[in-house]
Description:
The protein is of the alpha/beta class and 245 residues long.
Amino acid sequence: MRLQFVGCGDAFGSGGRFNTCFHVQGDKSNFLIDCGASSMIALKRLGIARNGIQAILFTHFHADHFGGLPFFMLDAQFFSKRTEPLTITGPRGLKDWFVRVMETAFPGSSATKPKFELTLKELAPGETAEIGPLRVTPFQAHHGNPGGPFFAYRVEAEGRTISYTGDSQWTDALADAARDADLFIAEAYFRDKQVPLHLDLKTLEEHLPAIGAKRLILTHMSDDMLGQRDELTYESAEDGMVVEI
């Protein structure tokens, strides 16, 4: 399997990076994890065929992770002429947030019937769902009110496991999501400064031995963190970076 960081930036364009969006493709699997506001630009720049994408797995509804959905939908409807089914997953409230984001970006667009089969599937923390060839397990992240609509993901496909923290301060659920994963993508917003609702590298490091992931890549870094990349002993994401899993 192949994962490409379509965008690995934060909400504020730190380092000139695109918003969060990861594209994963294998022999049978083709999906996105998140689709932030700038993701359509990045997808087209990288030449990624949008119609082949079977599913989009959203971690939460902040614009730097969710805001690209209206552009993806309208492109599918009017430009790429999509006919293949598309499944969109996310936390509870997804169906309402779908209407909100579409109407905010393009008033009236939520009432337009897609020319392809669209499934909006709300997931529950700790419950595994079969999404085509994927086994998707969301875990409760802490990026707002405790128990709110924020996920970390564990995705199993084609004999490989990918885990992503989403945006979250440390919670033991992140360890459960990432344990023994082939690839663990983790937020590292700061190096050792702890701020509410986000994960810093120092806190993450304390838990890595118990997690045992085979490969760790840091993402969603602030300008402060990006300025210290050369001092890190861990891999860090770059826009366009390709990882073979």
